[in-house]
Amino acid sequence: MALEITDANFEETVLKSTKPVLVDFWAAWCGPCRMITPIIEELATDFEGKATIGKVNVDQNPNVSMKYGVRSIPTILILKDGEVVDKHVGVTTKQALQDKINAALA
Q: Taking the CB of residue 19, how many other CB atoms lie within 10 A of it?
């Protein structure tokens, strides 16, 4: 299951992580976000122990969303060593996200 990432735990969970982190910025009212949720959950299982897969609810966590300039959702960021190494806005395929995570693992 994807990890719930909040304004309060973002630094510890994402920025200090020793593994690459995929962060899905979403909201409950967002149709495309609901479409991508099953993919995010599958990735959390597929990459367990290798990468962290998490979700940030933009309505409940405005600070992180503002810090990374999230204006459209879903926005997916991949961070490694606290730095954004890849970004995707909108719905995408599981394969595309797997490729981005694998690139961050390399």
A: 15
